[in-house]
Write a structure and sequence with these properties.
Elements (H helix, E strand, L loop, with lengths): L5 H4 L2 H16 L6 E4 L8 H4 E8 L17 E7 L5 E5 L11 H13 L4 E10 L8 E10 L20 H10 L5 E6 L8 H10 L3 E3 L3 H9 L3 E11 L10 H24 L3
Parallel strand pairs: 1-4, 1-5, 5-9, 6-7, 7-8
Antiparallel strand pairs: 2-3, 3-4, 5-8, 6-9
Helix pairs in contact: 2-4, 4-7, 5-8
Protein name: Purine nucleoside phosphorylase
Catalytic activity: a purine 2'-deoxy-D-ribonucleoside + phosphate = a purine nucleobase + 2-deoxy-alpha-D-ribose 1-phosphate
Pfam families: PNP_UDP_1
Length: 275
Amino acid sequence: MAMTTVHETTGPFDLAREAAQVIASRSGVARHDLALVLGSGWGGAADLIGETVSEIPAAEVPGFHAPAVAGHVPVMRSIRVTGTDRYALVLGSRTHFYEGRGVRAVAHGMRTAAAAGARQVVLTNGCGGLNPDWRPGQVVLIRDHINLTAASPLEGATFVDLTDLYSQRLRDLAHEVDPSLPEGVYVQFRGPHYETPAEVKMAGILGGDLVGMSTTLEAIAAREAGMEVLGLSLMTNLAAGISPTPLSHAEVIEAGQQAAPRIARLLAEVVMRMG
């Protein structure tokens, strides 16, 4: 008998509802108001947002897996935001497109968050920068993106307007916390190899300021699900051809660790204002 996969028998939104039900049952939180995806360097923010009421290994929730990238957290946390009655669902790991699990798996976190009740999502990442005036550790607000993965999380005749995908209102809140934050255009490549100098140059010609391997597909899925999106990038290194040294994942991890306390405080303060 031929084997069938869960995706052949279960639609993406059915699987998301199933995952949300497991999270609600195991966490005791009936509704999560917002979601956070904590990329490289951002994991410490969860400890500053509020009281953790539940931790669930990601691999025990339908459709999720243990993280494939060093520096990502293998648990989902339900956190009561300090001073509020709001709950945040913190996704400590994301599925990257380069893992080969398909675009549905990449979008699953956003669909699950929406099924769990979230109407806002904060997407964070570590990435390379094109602006030579920025230094590793610089946080940049994403104001727009360029998706170079040649893929979309939308299926069928699903036409979604992305004109204001990255919320101006939420960016304004972030600027209230830190008026010096620059804004930029994030360019997602498929990965997992780093971009060549020529590809980085192309990204700049297209209007990009940051290059990485995540976020854009999740942002599109979040918009389809009706969530308000805030994107923050931690520039961990200058991109290929701009950086005078070869790129390495160890460099990304080190830059994230050095910036972690500062960016965790920034993100926590932003979350406090998102109610």
